[in-house]
């Protein structure tokens, strides 16, 4: 016969009836609606900024849209994927941070390579410049 506390631990609960940390919080209707409203707002604002030409500088617009995209990723993680530092002893968040680091490295290296290829390419020959200017 097993010890009562061992049986409770085998089923994901302790003697006090607490649930496992991974099972402690599920989405509620209020949480999903909050996430939906935030995601919709974080989609509408960049659309308005770009389509309305609200900010005249292209670089500033791009940076603002990228910032809002990053915020929207966090909203999706919290409200829809339920990732936080408490779930599964923090392993979900650690895996996400590792993924973000890899994505930043790959995207940053890709942009860097494309920029350097563009900057170091041979200049266009005069015959192609004429065609480009004429069209």
TrEMBL record:
InterPro entries, A to Z: Cyt_c_oxidase_su4_prok, Cyt_o_ubiqinol_oxidase_su4, Cytochrome_c_oxidase_bac_sub4
Gene that encodes the chain: cyoD
Membrane topology: Multi-pass membrane protein
Functional summary from the UniProt entry: Cytochrome bo(3) ubiquinol terminal oxidase is the component of the aerobic respiratory chain of E.coli that predominates when cells are grown at high aeration. Has proton pump activity across the membrane in addition to electron transfer, pumping 2 protons/electron.
Keywords: Cell membrane, Electron transport, Membrane, Oxidoreductase, Transmembrane, Transmembrane helix, Transport
Protein name stated in the entry: Cytochrome bo(3) ubiquinol oxidase subunit 4
Chain intervals with Polar residues compositional bias: 1-15
PANTHER family: CYTOCHROME BO(3) UBIQUINOL OXIDASE SUBUNIT 4
Subunit structure of this chain's protein: Heterooctamer of two A chains, two B chains, two C chains and two D chains.
Organism: Rhodanobacter ginsengisoli
Similarity field: Belongs to the cytochrome c oxidase bacterial subunit 4 family.
Region (Disordered): 1-23
Transmembrane regions listed in the UniProt entry: 32-50, 62-81, 93-115
Annotated localization: Cell membrane
């Amino acid at each position: 016969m097993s010890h009562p506390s061992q049986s409770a631990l085998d089923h994901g609960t302790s003697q006090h009836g607490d649930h496992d940390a991974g099972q402690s919080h599920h989405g509620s209707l209020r949480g999903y609606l909050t996430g939906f409203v935030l995601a919709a707002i974080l989609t509408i604002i960049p659309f308005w900024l770009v389509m309305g030409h609200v900010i005249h500088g292209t670089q500033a617009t791009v940076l603002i849209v990228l910032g809002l995209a990053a915020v929207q990723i966090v909203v999706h993680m919290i409200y829809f994927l339920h990732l936080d530092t408490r779930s599964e002893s923090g392993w979900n968040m650690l895996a996400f941070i590792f993924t973000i680091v890899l994505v930043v490295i790959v995207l940053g290296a890709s942009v860097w390579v494309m920029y350097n290829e563009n900057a170091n390419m041979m200049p266009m020959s005069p015959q192609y410049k004429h065609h480009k200017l004429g069209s």
